[in-house]
Each structure stands twice: as C-alpha cells, then as structure tokens.
C-alpha cells in the first residue's frame, strides 16, 4: 500500500470543524505550525502580516508558523481549521494570506471529504486530510500557473526571529519585554518597534497569546486550579491571570473550562 504522508511530506496536527461559529473567542492567535482556514459558508475579516481583507467560500487563508492571525466573523461561519507541518519544510513555499480556488466543484468535494473525517483523528484519517490539503495547493498552483513549491517564509529581522524563538521557549516563565530587549542590546521601545514591524503585533501581545494558548490546554486537559495554571503560564496569581484571560476570551477561565471540556 502506498504511503500518502510520504507523497505529500505533510503532517496534520489538528483538524477542527465549526458549524456554525458566531464569533471568534480571540480576535487574534498564533500557532506553532502552518494553519489554514477553509471556509464553507460565511464571511470573515483576516490579517496575516501585511495581507488583509475578507474571505468567503472559494477562498482559503494560509498563515505561517508563529505569525499572528487576526480574524473577525462578519457573518456566522462554517469552516475547517487545520494545523500542519512538513517533514522537510525547506523544500516548500506556501502562499501567505488568501488564495482563491476557481474549481468550485472540486473544492466542494474536498470539503465534503473533510467533513466526513472531521472528528476522526486516527493516523490513517490524518494522512488522507494531508493529501486533500496538498491537493488543493497543487490545484491552486495549476490554476495560477505558478511553480509548485519554493522556500518557506522567514522572519527577515534576525533579532526578531531569535526573540520569537526565545518567547516560545520561555513564554510561561517570569519574563518581561524589557528583559528580552536587553538580551539583544535594545531598549524596550526599540525592541517593541522592531518586533511589531516584523510580526504585526507588539511583543507583549504575542507573549500573551502564547500564554493563553497554554492556559487553554491546561484548562481542558488537567484538573489544575486556576492559581496553579496562572503560575504555570507565567502569571503571578490567579486573579491577574483571570482578568487577562477574561478580557481576551470574553469569558472567565472557569466558564471556559465548563463550556469546552469534554
């Protein structure tokens, strides 16, 4: 039997299907892998780095690893969200932001197959999902007569690239933006300016996104108290953590746990 993962070189890390989604809990988020929004119904606003606009059926949004994706639902949405990576990422260049697929029948068929596997996380299912996403990319390149694959995007500012790596390793430690800036010989103002210019959000916002992503995982997958989770995510106490979480997620950590825990 042939191995689809070998053919595509792609590994699926998450597949979520929303039907419907009225509004995003976070207006922006960042992920450690490539991520893609495949919209079946509805309209939403997006921004990936300098690329922004509206997207609907027939259009797909790609966002690179560690780059914030800003989003806002304009109408109720039905969509697939997938996180993925390549085994040999240096061989690949993916579009950033919005692409359009003209072959609507092919696209509808692909979405139907994804729906049938939306809650199936077996290795075999994920290999087929990888094949379907790769197929859409190839279709896009064929329709636009572009080279199939190139180089992966990189953060151009080397200091910011190192800072992003540092944040991912130490986000849940007791660190400050001033401390990170000093590691690179910059003032907090200089560092913030360079970071926002490269990434699209201030470093403190990026740090908060990383911490809240970890907090959501702990809320859903552990029985840790709110105070425990606060400390594990880099916050001094549960009260301050709850205030930050509630502001971003539009609900308290306790309510988030009750609503989403399986």
Give a nutshell description of this structure.
This protein has helices at residues 4-8, 104-116, 123-144, 158-170, 177-183, 188-199, 203-221, 226-232, 238-249, 253-260; strands at 10-21, 28-29, 34-41, 44-48, 51-55, 59-63, 69-73, 77-86, 97-100. With 262 residues, it is α+β, with helices and mostly antiparallel strands. The protein has two domains: 4-144, Regulatory protein AraC (Jelly Rolls); 158-260, Homeodomain-like (Arc Repressor Mutant, subunit A).
Task: Characterize the structure shown.
The protein has 262 residues and is an alpha+beta fold. The chain has 2 domains: 4-144, Regulatory protein AraC (Jelly Rolls); 158-260, Arc Repressor Mutant, subunit A (Orthogonal Bundle), CATH 1.10.10. Helix content is 45%, strand content 21%. It is built from 10 helices and 9 strands. It has helices at residues 4-8, 104-116, 123-144, 158-170, 177-183, 188-199, 203-221, 226-232, 238-249, 253-260; strands spanning 10-21, 28-29, 34-41, 44-48, 51-55, 59-63, 69-73, 77-86, 97-100. The strands form 2 sheets. A 5-stranded antiparallel β-sheet has the order 1-8-3-6-9. Helix 8 (226-232) crosses helix 9 (238-249). The longest helix is centred in the middle third of the chain and has 22 residues, at 123-144. The two termini are 35 Å apart. The model is unreliable at 1-7 and 146-152 (pLDDT under 50).
């Amino acid at each position: 039997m042939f191995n689809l993962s070998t053919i595509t070189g792609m590994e699926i890390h998450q597949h979520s299907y929303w039907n419907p989604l009225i509004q995003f809990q976070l207006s922006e988020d960042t992920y450690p892998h490539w991520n893609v929004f495949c919209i079946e119904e509805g309209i939403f606003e997006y921004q990936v780095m300098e690329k922004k606009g509206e997207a609907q059926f027939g259009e797909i949004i790609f966002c690179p690893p560690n780059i914030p994706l800003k989003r806002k639902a304009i109408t109720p949405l039905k969509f697939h969200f997938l996180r993925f990576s390549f085994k040999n990422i240096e061989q690949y260049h993916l579009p950033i932001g919005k692409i359009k697929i003209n072959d609507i029948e092919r696209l509808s068929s692909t979405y139907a197959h994804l729906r049938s596997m939306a809650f199936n996380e077996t290795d075999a299912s994920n290999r087929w999902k990888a094949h379907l996403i790769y197929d859409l990319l190839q279709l896009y390149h064929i329709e636009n007569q572009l080279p199939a694959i190139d180089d992966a995007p990189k953060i151009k500012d080397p200091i910011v690239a190192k800072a992003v790596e540092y944040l991912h390793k130490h986000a849940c430690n007791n660190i400050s933006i001033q401390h990170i800036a000093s590691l690179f010989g910059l003032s907090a103002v200089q560092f913030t300016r360079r970071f926002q210019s490269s990434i699209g959000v201030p470093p403190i916002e990026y740090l908060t996104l990383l911490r809240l992503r970890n907090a959501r995982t702990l809320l859903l997958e552990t029985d840790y108290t709110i105070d425990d989770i606060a400390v594990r995510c880099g916050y001094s106490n549960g009260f301050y953590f709850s205030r930050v979480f509630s502001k971003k997620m539009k609900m308290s950590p306790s309510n988030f746990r009750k609503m989403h825990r399986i």
